[in-house]
Amino acid sequence: MVCKTLNDKQIEAFLFDVLGYSVDGKEIYNYVDSVPTRTRNIVERIKELHEVGPGANLPGAKGTIWGAYNAVTNYADFHSVVKGNSEEARLNSAFFGNMATLKDRAFTKALQLVKA
Fold first, then answer.
1. Do the domain assignments include residue 69?
2. What value does the mean pLDDT take over residues 65-84?
3. What is the distance between the alpha carbons of residues 78 and 74, in angstroms, rounded to a whole number?
4. What distance lies between CA 108 and its chain's CA centroid?
5. What pLDDT is stored for residue 15 in this prediction?
6. What is the pTM of this model?
7. Number of domains present in the structure of the chain
8. What domain range includes position 100?
């Protein structure tokens, strides 16, 4: 994942795809207005984590598939809104719930990009 780089548009397309807004090869920018504001805000937060979050400045992170995947997992584990907002609820979501599903989807999409 560290050997394959992505430009900003590709990273954003990866994030929208991970969040369930694939447009089958068409430019997401033509459809971004139809994406809910909450989803756009999540994408912006993950892009910010990709730029300046933990591990973002390590060699092989910024601008790579690994860096984008790392930003998704960081968001899922530490920045997402979790019902209940307790440490136990966050842990359950990260390991078994919605955020675990998000991380799995990001990993699968990242591997698809590596193979492409």
1. yes
2. 91
3. 6
4. 12
5. 93
6. 0.87
7. 1
8. 8-115
